[in-house]
Write a structure and sequence with these properties.
It contains no helices and eleven strands. With 117 residues, it is an all-beta fold. The strands form two sheets. Strands 2, 4, 5, 6, 9, 10 and 11 form a seven-stranded mixed beta sheet that branches. The radius of gyration is 14 Å and the shape is globular. It starts with a strand and ends with a strand.
Length: 117
């Protein structure tokens, strides 16, 4: 059973930083693509950062230069380092994976990030 479990969310002041983690388990085939999405109250879920292929990471324009996607294959964990956080970054952040072969879409349960003074 494939599981994606996020952690690392919380309350942070504007200008602060957080690092989100997504622990991945249960996939026999690995993932063709992995990424982070977010959903703010009353808004649609949107892409934050997504890696597919070898070394290509796509970022939303609103987070470029502030957020960084990374992955530790030995720990089966992906990360989202978020710097210079703004109130408009407040949302529930979700980890996503598209499995090799089946191309099934898997989501974590989400972690709340609140940026407020």
């Amino acid at each position: 059973q494939v599981q994606l479990v996020e952690s690392g969310g919380g309350l942070v002041q504007p200008g602060g930083s957080l690092r989100l983690s997504c622990a991945v388990s249960g996939s026999r085939f690995g993932f063709a693509a992995m990424g982070w999405y977010r959903q703010a109250p009353g808004k649609k879920r949107e892409l934050v950062a997504r890696k597919s292929g070898e070394d290509i990471v796509n970022y939303a324009d609103s987070v470029k230069g502030r957020f960084t996607y990374s992955r530790d294959n030995a720990k089966n964990t992906v990360y989202l380092q978020m710097n210079s956080l703004k109130p408009e970054d407040t949302a529930v952040y979700y980890c996503n994976g598209v499995e090799n072969g089946s191309f099934m879409n898997y989501w974590g349960q989400g972690t709340q990030v609140t940026v407020s003074s």
